[in-house]
Amino acid sequence: MSYAITPTASRALPPLPKAAADRTGRPAAELQQFVTVESLAFSIADESARADIETMCPYQYDASGRPWFDTTLVTDVDDRPYVEAALQYLILRDLIQLSPQSPNLVGFAEIQS
Fold first, then answer.
1. Among 8, 37, 55, 71, whose CB has the most other CB atoms within 10 angstroms?
2. What is the distance between the alpha carbons of residues 32 and 14, in angstroms, rounded to a whole number?
């Protein structure tokens, strides 16, 4: 069984230029599907890594009410590899901010849609 996934308006991608299809020899529709799948895969990975940090790390609020997650105080030792992988991924994707007060505290920028 297969399911068709239609991107929401906020995640809809612009069509690929015709020249992109010409360079690869693939039809534009096939390339557009690949770009959509790639975008969806990054979105899922981004949200999954963020959820790992948010659910496995204790947090504290700063004076402005922003939560900062302590990546060194993972309570379940079995969760440590997931937090480390999520942290590494989010740093590489530039989706996480380190606290100016403490290097073990991390925060997230608001997602722009």
1. 71
2. 9
